[in-house]
Specification:
Strand order of the largest sheet of chain A: 2-1-3-4
Distance between the termini of chain A: 47 Å
Low-confidence stretches of chain A: none
Largest sheet of chain B: 4 strands, antiparallel
Mean pLDDT of chain B: 87
CATH architecture of the largest domain in chain A: 3-Layer(aba) Sandwich
Low-confidence stretches of chain B: 29-36
Shape of chain A: globular
Mean pLDDT of chain A: 90
Largest sheet of chain A: 4 strands, parallel
Helix content of chain B: 10-25%
Oligomer: heterodimer
CATH topology of the largest domain in chain A: Rossmann fold
Strand content of chain B: 35-45%
Strand order of the largest sheet of chain B: 4-1-6-7
Distance between the termini of chain B: 80 Å
């Protein structure tokens, strides 16, 4: 009966949707649903569990996008195929890089944010802007503006929904700040597998030490690992963190060399099943970080 | 034996050298570093979200940058009031003139101006009223 009701609701949403859009990240798809409501039909191309760093739309995905007016991408160069995608879907479909308004975090040694950084990521832009509540607020507003431009009849609805979502995100930030306040300032150092937490660190006052590069599959040089181990010892780092969907090999190696505690795995790319909504991802990560570092 | 072996050796080495140079160029892996994506540039035009927050509703508000006025038509019954504008942001920053007036009897109160250019950090400044009026010059700079 529940399945039948859910199916009826889905069909009703599809039947009444004013515009059809596509999302290249499940978290963005959920943001669009929050802002668009029943007026927007969202096609999720990257499903929960997918790999944002290696996904590329197939011919089947391009076909599924038929009739879409807008394609919402994360941006910040995580989707390297956007030019090709624009060619495939034609000029009549607008591709929106939702992360564009968010100030970029550049990975650079010597930057106050980083304790040390892998050479091969040096100079790169961290694309994982979705860890920043203030970044998410900008994204939500941008989504509202684009939906309003594409569907002016419902512009006031999108604006009101975006405003409501911004307020909710402000609430999540306030909660996170209160939780993080339990961690002594000296312990606010985040050692993670790949360089995915620059925005989290910037927003919440942590220093970052990524062991790999910008992608989960990046390799770290032995020289960098030695430098990282030395930093972990010298800085008295309390715990380090593996990530969902990432190879824990380097993390395990460092734990065995230093004896440092291993915290619960963090959600890095926002694509893990059950954690594709911002609130769920943020709460999980903050709880894990506070538990390990306070 | 015909010929002069050292000459034969020299010719052979010259021939080898003539082939080796282009082969080395073809077979040596050269890493062409892909241009790293650039972070947003400060100087230039930026789509900017402006917001004014107040604790007590003023009778009037004016926010100007040079001759441009923002929030001219905004209703003042609820906080915050918001607008979008394209702003030219030079490296030495921008300056606003903020004025407001409150009804008689309003206690000391504050206005907060939030400036959020696309791609640049949000900056906020708060100013307090003197009596029932406020007139301030507020500067913002992004480096």
């Amino acid at each position: 009966m529940k399945l039948f009701t859910a199916l009826l609701c889905t069909l009703a949403t599809v039947a009444s949707a004013e515009i059809k859009v596509a999302a290249l990240h499940p978290m963005i798809g959920n943001l669009i649903r929050d802002v668009g409501g029943k007026n927007v039909e969202v096609i999720d191309l990257l499903k929960p569990g997918g790999d944002i760093h290696h996904f590329e739309p197939s011919a089947k995905d391009i076909a599924a996008m038929k009739g879409t007016k807008l394609i919402f991408a994360s941006g910040k160069h995580i989707e390297t195929y956007l030019d090709n995608l624009q060619d495939s879907v034609g000029a009549g479909v607008k591709i929106i890089e939702v992360g564009k308004p968010v100030p970029s975090v550049k990975i650079e040694k010597g930057q106050e944010l980083f304790m040390c950084c892998p050479e091969h990521a040096h100079g790169g832009i961290d694309p994982h802007w979705w860890h920043s509540p203030s970044g998410m607020q900008r994204a939500v507003r941008y989504i509202g503006e684009e939906l309003a431009a594409a569907d002016p009849a419902n512009a006031e609805v999108y604006k009101a929904n975006a405003s409501a979502e911004e307020k909710k995100i402000a609430g999540y930030r306030a909660w996170a700040q209160q939780q993080i306040a339990q961690i002594p300032k000296a312990n606010r150092k985040l050692v993670t597998a790949h360089a995915a937490f620059g925005y989290f660190c910037k927003e919440f006052g942590f220093k970052s030490l990524p062991l790999l590069g910008l992608s989960r599959e990046d390799e770290a040089s032995p020289k960098y690992i030695t430098e990282a181990v030395k930093t972990i010892r010298e800085q008295g780092i309390k715990a380090i963190f593996a990530e969902d969907q990432a190879n824990p090999k380097i993390i395990n190696q460092i734990v065995s060399e230093t004896g440092v505690k291993l915290g619960e795995p963090l959600i890095a790319d926002g694509t893990a099943p059950g954690f594709t909504k911002f609130e769920a991802m943020l709460r999980h990560n903050v709880d894990a970080v506070v538990k390990a570092l306070r | 034996m015909r010929g002069y072996p050292p000459i034969h050796l020299l010719v052979l080495m010259l021939a080898f050298g003539a082939m080796a140079v282009p082969l080395v160029n073809l077979t040596t892996a050269r890493t062409v570093a892909a241009a790293a994506p650039r972070a947003e540039q400060v100087a230039g035009m930026h789509k900017t979200h402006l917001a004014l927050r107040f604790a007590h509703a003023p009778k009037s508000i004016s926010l100007k940058m040079g001759e441009r006025e923002f929030f001219r038509e905004s209703a003042l019954n609820a906080s915050p009031i918001e607008t979008q504008a394209e702003l030219a942001i030079p490296t030495d920053g921008i300056e606003f003139i903020l004025s407001a007036e409150w009804p008689d009897g309003t206690p000391d109160t504050a206005l907060t101006l939030e400036v959020e250019p696309d791609g640049l950090d949000t900056k906020t400044e708060t100013r307090w009223s003197i009596g029932t009026t406020l007139t301030e010059v507020i500067s913002f700079q992004w480096k």
